[in-house]
């Protein structure tokens, strides 16, 4: 065997090792560390340290300004949808009026035809009866069925828009009065100078640990320091962490597929 056949360019296919070294195509995987995870004190919308932080009943932390701006956009969207719905209602009402007028005109013509031309009206009614029987027997034709998609008269109005504010993350209904103000204890002893939230009991940094928010006081306490009680859901809110940076607890592998450029 010559030396040339042992080079990478000699094989017609990629080996497993060669395929892993190529970073231009196929599924790329990267493990996310603690720096890639959202911290407890960061807002879910702007991803920066929350200013005047508030929490929903489901444990999502927002800046008060961010969540109020989000609610304002939702109200603007509701106004646009409501105006569009009112226009559709007017158009639908005009169509119904036109159809009613056409129906009345057709009945008047039938009365005139049967009154003036009695024999021709009888013959015409017989012919219409035959056509109706043919249409009834041909139920598979799109234009014959009343519930068919081709029937333009069967179009109905969409549902009216609902004036409901929703959480931007979960999409569940949310009211402004349900927001709970957070009053965290801060620690300035950090490398980058940004304040971090600490537990009100142990004075330890929260980081990515499980933390509970007291509804009445707005203080944060690590889950390990709270005893399990019957009214725990009414007293505390479990904040949703961005990740624990530990592979056994979260899926911290990011995947991205790239097609081969040929």
Description:
Helix content is 32%, strand content 14%. By secondary structure, the chain is α+β, with helices and mostly antiparallel strands. A hairpin with an 8-residue loop joins strand 5 and strand 6. It has helices at residues 16-21, 64-116, 118-137, 232-235, and strands at 26-31, 53-55, 61-63, 180-181, 185-187, 196-198, 211-214, 220-222, 236-238, 253-258. It has a three-stranded antiparallel beta sheet. A three-stranded antiparallel beta sheet has the order 8-7-9. It has two domains: 27-60 and 167-258, no CATH class; 72-154, no CATH class.
Mean pLDDT: 79
Ranges with pLDDT <50 over ≥5 residues? Answer: 148-154
Number of domains: 2
Overall radius of gyration: 34 Å
The global form is flat
- SSE succession: HEEEHHEEEEEHEE
Give the % helix: 25-40%
Give the class from helix and strand content and strand pairing: alpha+beta
| Oligomeric category | single chain
Protein name: Nitric oxide synthase-interacting protein zinc-finger domain-containing protein
Pfam family, one: zf-NOSIP
Family: Belongs to the NOSIP family.
GO molecular function: ubiquitin protein ligase activity
